[in-house]
Amino acid sequence: MIELTTRWLGLDLRSPLVVGASPLTDDVGALRACVDAGAGAVVMHSLFEEQLVAEQMAAHRFIDSRINMDAEARSFFPESEVFEMGSGSYLKRLERLRSTLDVPVIASLNGISPGGWTLHARELQDAGADAIELNLYDLATDPAETAVTLEQRQQEVVRSVVGQVSIPVSVKLSPFYSALPAFVAGVEAAGAHGLVLFNRFYQPDMDLDALTLSRELVLSSSAELPLRLHAVATLFNRTGLEMAVSGGVHTGDDAAKAILSGGTVVQVVSALLAEGPQALARISDAMNRRLSTMGYRTVAEARGALSLDNAPDSKAWERLNYARLLQGWR
Ligand SMILES: Cc1cc2nc3c(=O)[nH]c(=O)nc-3n(C[C@H](O)[C@H](O)[C@H](O)COP(=O)(O)O)c2cc1C
Prior knowledge:
With about 325 residues, the protein is α/β, with parallel strands linked by helices.
């Protein structure tokens, strides 16, 4: 079996597998079980800019928690009241997790405009957060705002949060940037220490009978992973930022691929919500077996082995491969 210890954002983790931001924050027992199952760190669900600006929970509803899970799986999911937590309760929860869990606890902020709300980053640090994950979940809907303006605004948010704290800050991005590597360089220049790739883009469907939008939150599948692998593989060695893969990790092979593409840590959410904390042990065992069968002795050795710079057939990550693939299709 291979050595799993990993350094992420300057923190020593015993495993690269991390519980991603989710309502599991609200269930200390489940988080403890994830840690017992081998998680190297946990990320709390987000405190939202809107929440902090208004500090008025009723004003903010994240998403109806009507999830496509069976009744048993549903019991792992602490329903939506978790999103109604104000910053006071969030800080208390953070302190509790910090004193209960013997792995790093990463707090999460979610916002898109520079402003006073970013001062709360300091409170998270004072409450014991080992790091902050800043989620830039942004939806461009204004035709008058250009990509340049939007990206500069986002980088300003990063700078503003980083400026409040001495703990490391990672930045969670959406996949939709025209020039991701250049944007990432800006995030690095703004003082961030790591990237979390990617946010899932929650897209309302339509209920044609009711002529309304249906806001169901569908858990991910492994099909969402390749988008992440591609981004991480192409950024590996081309950014000074460490990378976490988030999205579509359900099996040990998924986690192994995330590491081989260049990920330092691998976040898991949907698998835990669907299956419970034992998913962590299952993924960890299988990832470990896979990487050790490949001959690696540590996760660090495996990291980036199939990245754009290192893969033997690395052209497969590039445009030319796309042209060949389309021409060769039968
Ligand atoms: C119910 C639910 C709640 C989530 N809440 C947050 C959140 O508060 N902040 C955040 O950054 N991401 C949140 N996420 C996104 C996850 O952290 C993760 O990025 C995403 O689910 C992809 O990982 P997965 O494929 O392992 O589920 C949430 C996801 C789910 C399913």
